[in-house]
# Entry
Amino acid sequence: MSFPLLTLTAAVPALGAIATAAVPAAKRTAAKWLALFFSLVTLALAVVVGIRFNTGSGADRYQLTESHSWIADFGVRYELGVDGIGVALIGLTALLIPFIIVAGWHDADPQETGNTRWRPTQGFFALILMVEAMVILSFEATDVFLFYILFEAMLIPMYFLIGGFGDRAHAGSDENAAAQRSYAAVKFLLYNLVGGLIMLAAVIGLYVVAGTFSLSEIAEMRAAGELEMATNTERLLFLGFFFAFAVKAPLWPLHTWLPNAMGEATAPVAVLITAVVDKVGTFAMLRYCLQLFPNASEWATPVVLVLALISIVYGALLAVGQRDIKRLVAYASISHFGFIIMGIFAMTSQGQSGATLYMVNHGISTAALMLVAGFLISRRGSRLIADYGGVQKVAPVLAGTFLIGSLATLSLPGLAPFVSEFLVLVGTFARYPVIGIIATFGIVLGALYSLVLYQRTMTGPVKLEVAKMPDLKLRELLVVGPLIVLLVFLGVYPKPVTELVDPAVKHTLSDVKQHDPEPEVAAK
Amino acid sequence: MSATAVHSLWTTAAEPITKIDSPQIEYSLIAPTLIVIGAAILGILVEAFVPRVARYYVQVFLSVVALVAAFAAVVALAAGGHGTTESGIVAMGALAVDGPALFLQGTILLSGLVAIFTFAERRLDPEAHGNRVDSFAAQAASVPGSESEQAAVRAGFTTTEVFPLALFAIGGMLVFPSANDLLTLFIALEVFSLPLYLMCALARRKRLMSQEAAVKYFLLGAFSSAFLLFGIALLYGYAGTVSYAGIADVVDGTVQNVNPALAGTMGNDALLLVGAALILMGLLFKVGAVPFHMWTPDVYQGAPTPVTGFMAAATKVAAFGALLRLLYVVLPGLRWDWRPVMWGVAIATMLLGAIVAITQTDIKRLLAYSSIAHAGFILAGVIATTPDGISSVLFYLGAYSFVTIGAFAVVTLVRDAGGEATHLSKWAGLGRRSPLVAAVFAVFLLAFAGIPLTSGFAGKFAVFKAAAEGGAGALVVVGVISSAIAAFFYIRVIVLMFFSEPKPEGPTVAVPSPLTMTAIGVGVAVTLVLGVAPQYFLDLANQASVFVR
# Structure
């Protein structure tokens, strides 16, 4: 038996969660350092996974595989394995968590003292690590049931993170804030739970049809022509899966939980939602919808593309109209998820490589923008754009990093998101020119909301309340600096990620029996 | 017939009576039931002869020993292959000893044992006149608020009769799923129902509510027993026998010798259909399925909370066991008739339980409606009519009973001046004040909601899978929709506990004795083990999924 590297990558943060939760109430700082330590070990393990992963042309599709019997009665195995897409997203998750932990260093310090039983700090960091463990394992699972379990179970720690540790910078009273926060948490949970339960029906249906949950076995059956799925059955099962992933991703019109959740959660938790957890949705579309139900995916493509297009334009339009910084970022994310889903369902290699790269880049760029926004909001105590103005004169470093984050969000060439957005658009245009053209307007709107946000908050006359705003501290710089370096690096040299992703995308495309359309010039 | 025996056309010579054959009873095979009933009878003698001071300890000891011994007997029988290859009909055809019977008996005994722990809890209520008291009335016979009640409280009386009553109820429940003829079924039903009616009336606090609950339960229960009995009479008229196998033979049309006295009614389909429907009604009442669920919220709310937990867990197990045997052994030939009806019942039960629970403001009523919804989920597995259906129901019942007892045990801990604080508004902010208790309750709620990595999910998955494979895909869809609705109110309680600010006059969490702690601990452990590694128990349920005929 080989060394269970993948299990370890998920087990380390899980153990970290338990260890952090067990730290006594008075030793708050120790809990934080412990959580950071475990997240860094996880990052190191993720790097090892990346190194051990073979991107050569003859390499297996799923590598570093592990397989153990788990619940034989349900046909469930504990099966892990990663393809390039999985490695990229594990890397993203493991990379972002330490930044999230450092950015949220003081977010969960208890306000009331004396209650020794209530240990919010320990809980906060333990829950973050718990989410990390489940997300990483869900990227590794090659058993549909195992994936489903993680997909659902990660909602619970997320739910407590949103509802239990809200943003203190709230316009209204404390009571009002608590009510809105718990509303956002419940909305998040119910949307995702309903999606998950509908997927459960489809998971059971898949088992009735295929008799197994293992991706590799299903692929073998399909190759041997043994998997008989009636057209209607396949479409229904596809819809069951897709619905859950579309809620999680989120895709218009199932997106409405995201602005609430991101608005009410603390900035690091908002990053956790949109940059890490939501990626499971788009990842699962690529791995499960396309691979398990290729014909139905093809059948659904036009509708999905139109929904993605609506997400792109609608999300961007609403972002333009937001008065709340965090909700603005949330709507911008909805627009970006539209791009990702469009890239996946364009069924071209550029589109899907671009979509995967987009997931990574969107994670980094949103983390950069949102975390700086969080630092800004914690200084002023307000999320409203109108409460800011002229910050760049008072806190130039903060304003500068905020600008880079905004520029990344609007996909400025030279920063990472540009490459992926370009790939997605090219990939879409090759097959669906009209949709590709309309989607381009998303970029224009992206420039509008990003620059208007910067202009209204950072430029202009210095507002009285902002006048004494301190600039970024060392801890905050340590969070933002590396993220910006990464944005620039991947913007100039995206090859490490694309090399990782390309073989997996080729596999996926061959699953759905799609080939890149021939360029028209070459056809002559 | 020899010629010498004929004296005339209408008389024959009687064989001289040498002996009457004594009934053949396989005592060792029905040992679990005998142990429990024997201990119950001993318990009554204890009430009569042991001094009041020592009664509590003797009763608790006796009950625990009896239940453990009975469980050991079940395990021994199962280990001896009586659940699989050696299963058979015993006690002159009255009882079946087979896989489902042993599995359910084991479940009932274990959940009964855990329930006895919560019955014996004496640290939660404040001491009355220097005496530690449990959840039960000082003297059940005294009128609430009367002089005699006060005198009983002053004297430190406690209702230790509750332990033999519980043992009788458990004894009846052990027989119920293994009953192999309709009369045994009816007797078992009465043996476990009558003590339950009584136990419902025994609450120490809110006694009028408790007595009201008992009367409601008794009246509706008696009504349903009457239906069951009438159904038995009709089925006897139809088949000429009350034995399960005999009726099944008549349903299948394979019966050879027709009793001439019954030839007129035998095989009359009207009798069969009406009789079967009436019997099903009686059983669905005990299960708490819609439209026979009306008693559940009132009784669950009024009964002393430990009794509610016991009822919700063990009664459900026993009643579903009997329902399974009836549908799978007696009426499989009729399944094209009962399946559509049960479809309707299951859908109505799942949806109504989940929807009405949303509007509840009392935690016990909420759990009552949740138990109705869960009865619907289990019915989905029953309808599958496959071996997988049986094993999934067995597994679900085992998983569900421990979650239920654990959840009601937590309810007993949250108290204010008026006893248990069951109104939901009082649970606000519990997570801040007692994170551990709130976290444990959250685990139970998540299991009820069927979140993965809890036993609730494994159980739900098993029954839905069985239902889907049995061709009831639509039922699965309704099931997941009502799960989603149900999730809403479970989550609401979690929101209340963790995300609401605690109220200054809110309830306190009593520190229980190791007894209740054990009950809750077992609940949590079973919930997590069955959620993460259910394979062993699924295997067990699989092996136990063949009924003997």
Remarks:
- Residues 33 and 457 of chain B are 32 Å apart (CA to CA).
